[in-house]
Amino acid sequence: MADRTLGAPPPDSALSQALKQWLFSFQEFWLLTAQAFRNIAATPFYAADTFLQMDSIGVGSLPIVVLTGFFTGAVMALQLSATLTEYGQIDRLGQLVSLSLVLELGPVLSALMIGARNASGMASELGSMVVTEQIDAMRALGTDPVKKLVTPRLIATIVMTFFLTLIADMCGIVGGWVYAVMGIHMNGALYWFSAFRILDASSMIQGLIKPLIFGGIIATVGCYYGMKARGGTQGVGRATTQAVVLASLLIIISDFLLSRLLVGILGT
Amino acid sequence: MPSAGGAATPPGDIVVRLEHVVLSFGGGPVLDDVSLQVRRGETKVLLGESGAGKSVLMKLVLGLLRPDRGRVWVFDQEVSAMKEQALYDLRRKIGMTFQESALFDSLSVRDNVAYRLEEDGVLTPEAMDERVRTCLSFVNLDAVMDKMPAELSGGMRHRVSIARALATSPEIMLYDSPTGGLDPETATTIMDLIIKLRDCNHVTALLATHRLQDGYLLATHAWDDATQTARWAAEGARHTSFLLLRQGRAIFDGSAAELRRDADPYVREFLS
C-alpha cells in the first residue's frame, strides 16, 4: 500500500483534474464577461477604440456577409421553387425565403461568418499581446486591459452583428428575388408582396434579438481565448482555433435555445 | 531630463518589502520563502540563473502576480492584498521595463511613450509631445519618435521602454533583464542610463539580471554630469545591494563587498 501522510489530500485523478480545469475556465469566462459588461457604464469610456473596432468588424465583415446572405437567399429560392411548383404554391416562394432568412438563416449564418472572421482575429490579436507581455505592460502602466481591449470589442461586435444581420437578411431576400425572376421567371412584384406580408412583429423581434446575443458570444469567446493564451505562437494558434470552434458551437446551440424561448414568449 | 521621483517618501524609508513570499505555478515553488527590503534611492540587483524567479519577483512587486503565501508591501500599501482596481493607481508610481521590452506594436514610439500621459488626459497635446521628447532625449533616442517598434533594434526598444516607464516620473523603477540578448556596447549604454537615473533622479530600483557584470557596474560606477558618462566611483556601492536567488530561494542578500566575501559554494560558483 502506498505510504500516505495522515491528513494529506489524496492525489487528483486525471478526470478530477480535467473537471477542475473546466470549472475554473468556466468561472474565468463568466468573470471576464461580467467585467466587460460592467465596464460599459464605467469611466474612462474608450470611444475611439470602440469606433475603431466597429470599423474593423463592421466594414471588414461586410463583403462576406453580403455574399453569404445573397447566395443563401438565391439557393433557397432554387431548392424550394421545384417543390412549391409541384404543389402549386410558387406564389409563396417569397414568404418562405424571407421568413427562413429573418428567423434563422440570416442571424445564424451572419454570426458564423462574423465569428469566423472576428473571434479568430480577437483571439490572435489579444493572444499575441499576452505572449509578448503587452497586456502585462498595459496593467503595469495603470490601464485595465479588460476596459481598454475587451469592452470596446464587445460593444462593437454586438452593434455591428445586429446591423450586418439586417443587411444579410435584405441581401438574402434580394438573392431569392433575383433567382425567382431570372431562374423561374416569376413575377417580381408577387415575390416581394409575399416576402414582406409574412413578416410580422413577432418574427422581426425574434430575428433582431438573436444577433445581439450572437454578437456577445463572438466577442466574449474571442477575447476570453485571447486573454488566456499561453505558450508563444503555438499557444496563440491554439487559442484562435478554439475561439472559432466554441463561438460557432455556442451560436448554433444558443440559436435553438433562443428560438424555443422566443417562440414561447412571442408565439409562432 | 525627466524630473526626480521619490519626493513623497522620506530618505532611508523602506519603499519595497517582501515578507516570506511563496509562489508556485502548478509544479514546485517558483519563489520559496523570499524576503527582501529596498530603501528609497537604493538599487537592488536580483541575481540568478534563468528560471531562478527574478522576473516573477518583479511582477509580485507590481501586483501583476499574487503570492500564495507571504506579503508584499510597496509604499506602506500591502500589494498582495489589494484589489486589481486599487492597484492601477499604485502602479502609476512605478515604472517597469520588461524582458522583451513589451512595447505596444501597433503604436508608434511617440504613442508608446505618451501612453500613460494620454490615459491620464491631464496634459495638452503640445505638453505631451514636449514630455515625450524629453524622455526620448534622456535615452538618446530623439530621432525615432515617429517610428514603429518593429523598425527599432533590440537595444533601441529597451531604451524606448525605459523612456515609456519614465514618462510619469515614477518613484520606483523595475528593470527586468534590461541587457538580455544585447551586444556588450548596447548593454553598457542601457546600464549607463540606469546609473544616470539612480544618481540624477534618485529613483529606487529593482534590477533583475543573470549578468554579474551589470550588477558590479552599478555597484562601482556613478554618473558624472560633467562628462555625461558613468565613471568608476566608490560611492556607487552605497546605493546598490544584491539579492542572489537559486531555484526560488534567496541565498544571499547584501552589498557587493559582502557578496565577494561570501563563502557559500553556490555563491562562489556563481561569481566565478
Plain-language structure description:
The complex is a heterodimer of chains A (268) and B (272). Chain A has helices at residues 14-38, 47-86, 93-131, 134-140, 145-183, 188-197, 201-227, 232-266. Chain A has 268 residues and is an all-alpha fold. Chain A has one domain. The longest helix of chain A has 40 residues, at 47-86. The N and C termini of chain A lie far apart (64 Å). The model of chain A has no long low-confidence stretch (mean pLDDT 91). With 272 residues, chain B is α/β, with parallel strands linked by helices. Chain B has ten helices and twelve strands. Chain B has helices at 54-61, 84-91, 109-113, 115-120, 125-138, 154-166, 184-201, 212-220, 256-261, 265-271, and strands spanning 14-24, 29-39, 43-47, 69-74, 77-78, 94-97, 172-176, 204-209, 221-224, 229-232, 240-246, 249-254. In chain B, helix 5 crosses helix 6. Chain B is globular. Classes of the chains: A mainly alpha (268), B alpha/beta (272).
Write the layout of secondary structure elements.
The complex is a heterodimer of chains A (268) and B (272).
Chain A: H1 14-38, H2 47-86, H3 93-131, H4 134-140, H5 145-183, H6 188-197, H7 201-227, H8 232-266
Chain B: E1 14-24, E2 29-39, E3 43-47, H1 54-61, E4 69-74, E5 77-78, H2 84-91, E6 94-97, H3 109-113, H4 115-120, H5 125-138, H6 154-166, E7 172-176, H7 184-201, E8 204-209, H8 212-220, E9 221-224, E10 229-232, E11 240-246, E12 249-254, H9 256-261, H10 265-271
Parallel strand pairs in B: 3-8, 3-11, 6-7, 7-8
Antiparallel strand pairs in B: 1-2, 1-4, 4-5, 9-10, 11-12
Give a brief description.
With 268 residues, chain A is mostly helical. Chain A has helices spanning 14-38, 47-86, 93-131, 134-140, 145-183, 188-197, 201-227, 232-266.
